[in-house]
Write a structure and sequence with these properties.
Blueprint lengths: L3 E5 L11 E8 L2 H8 L2 H4 L3 E4 L5 E2 L4 E8 L4 E6 L3 E7 L4 H11 L23 E2 L2 E2 L4 E8 L5 E5 L20 E11 L9 H9 L7 H15 L7 E5 L5 E3 H10 L6 E2 L4 E3 L2 H7 L6 E2 L2 E4 L2 E7 L5 H19 L8 E2 L1
Parallel strand pairs: 2-5, 3-5, 4-20
Antiparallel strand pairs: 1-2, 6-7, 7-12, 8-9, 10-11, 10-12, 13-19, 14-16, 15-16, 17-18, 18-19
Helix pairs in contact: 4-5
Bound molecules: uridine-diphosphate-2(N-acetylglucosaminyl) butyric acid.
Length: 338
């Protein structure tokens, strides 16, 4: 087990921030992790568990131990009349796993094609896109208690999933390392075509009875046309959550902006696209020094070259302040700020 010091994290976060970790270790197996838990460097330092590094922003160097997980494996563990139960190791790449489900006919995750990151990170923020959230297909999550090394199984209900949120981002933050996720996927397809952009895309292609593969390809094409590829332009997807506001706020903003897009978010609440709010404030496609917002989706902050974490965070705060002044709505980061 090799623990590296003063390790540069630039290629371990998709925003491409050159922050340094005081200590860094690459973990390939659960046994290695259990061994690590008993070492002084683990016990005496603040820890950060890193999957694909696609949902975080380093605002400064990390004065602790970064643990990069890389356990691999996809196993069909059980079948019943309606479902396939598939157990996946945390270090598997999310999109490669989705492609495998499409190939095998394990149905449910195709709307979540091309999301960057790892399988182990997916439950933490309950990844979602095009009308589907991963919680709908999670059966259980296995995680290792970072204090004792014991393995605990969380039933889906114990994960407290919500919009881009879970128990692993709240009360259990930093306490567990997700080692495996078991998905319950459909045998008989029940496609989700509720998202207008997806529906319109399939219609435009004259696809009347879509297959799992056609939906996956449609999502890949829509995402590629709207979102920057992190391998080409540093970014971490949507930087903010779409704010959910009360009816009074919603009505006030709508009366001043009759063309505002919105979704109902339960009785008396409305979700307003943060990308729209940011665009209205004039930030879309604008670059300030080394950071900016993406020209086709203002909700995505981009690294235009050699951005530091501080620069990116200062820019994010400038957006938060401007949106608050103009609309009286506060944006919250969707990414983890380190
Ligand atoms: N919009 C603008 N200007 C912009 C961006 C968006 O006016 O610059 C408007 C669009 O015209 C549309 C609405 O905002 O009316 C929604 O835009 P879009 O369909 O692009 O989705 P989003 O709400 O901005 C969310 C997720 C994405 C996910 C898409 C598709 C969040 C925070 N983001 O974005 O997730 O891919 O829906 O389902 O919920 C991610 O989490 O990293 C991510 C990319």
């Amino acid at each position: 087990m090799e623990i590296l010091e003063n390790f540069v994290l630039k290629s371990y976060n998709t925003f491409g921030i050159p922050a340094k970790a005081r200590f860094f270790i690459h973990i390939q197996t659960t046994e290695e992790l259990q061994e690590l838990i008993n070492t002084p460097v683990f016990k005496q330092n603040e820890r950060l568990i890193l999957g694909g590094g696609s949902n975080l922003l380093f605002t400064q160097d990390f004065d602790g131990l970064v643990v990069k997980t890389a356990q691999k494996g996809i196993v069909l563990v059980k079948e019943d009349a309606q479902h396939f139960y598939v157990k996946v190791q945390a270090g598997e790449n999310w999109h490669q796993f989705v492609l495998r489900t499409v190939e095998e006919g394990w149905q449910g995750l195709e709307n979540l094609s091309l999301i960057p990151g790892t399988v182990g990170a997916a439950p933490i923020q309950n990844i979602g896109a095009y009308g589907v959230e991963v919680e709908q297909f999670i059966f259980e999550v296995n995680a290792i208690d970072l204090q004792s090394g014991a393995l605990r199984t969380f039933a889906a209900s114990e994960c407290k999933f919500a919009y881009r949120n879970s128990v692993f981002k709240q009360e259990l933050k930093g306490k567990y390392l997700i080692s495996e996720v078991t998905f319950r996927l459909n045998k008989l397809p029940k496609f989700n075509l509720t998202y207008a952009a997806l529906n319109q895309y399939l219609e435009a292609q004259n696809i009347v009875l879509p297959t799992q593969k056609a939906i996956s390809e449609a999502v890949i094409n829509i995402r590629s046309s709207k979102l920057p590829n992190p391998e080409e332009i540093g970014n971490c997807g949507s930087f903010f959550k779409n704010p959910v506001v009360e009816e009074a706020v919603f009505k006030r903003v709508l009366s001043e902006n009759t063309n505002m897009p919105y979704y109902s978010a339960g009785e008396g609440f409305y979700k307003i696209p943060a990308g729209w709010l940011i665009e209205q404030c004039g930030f879309k496609g604008k670059v300030f020094g080394n950071v900016g917002t993406y020209s086709k989706q203002a909700l995505v902050l981009v690294n235009c070259g050699n951005a530091t974490g501080k620069e990116a965070w200062d820019f994010a705060n400038k957006i938060i302040d401007t949106v608050a002044d103009r609309f009286g709505i506060s944006l919250e980061p969707e990414v983890n700020i380190i």
